[in-house]
Design goal:
By secondary structure, the chain is mainly α. It contains three helices and no strands. GO terms for molecular function: DNA-binding transcription factor activity.
């Protein structure tokens, strides 16, 4: 791998890591609103908990 390719890969890895970190921050900041939205679709609290847990695992 050339030096230029290595630097590009390092930069991309850092950006992706930053994007993932920012996504987690946003998800956590808006979890209550997301839970409320899911609750409108699924009135059973256990179902809401399961959907939110599955979404957290997948994301």
């Amino acid at each position: 791998m050339s030096e230029k390719s290595r630097k590009l890969a390092d930069t991309m890895g850092k950006e992706e890591s930053g994007d993932a970190s920012r996504f987690i921050q946003l998800f956590m900041a808006h979890e209550r609103q997301l839970r409320f939205f899911v609750h409108q679709l699924l009135p059973d609290r256990n179902d809401v908990d399961e959907v939110m847990q599955n979404a957290s695992v997948v994301l």
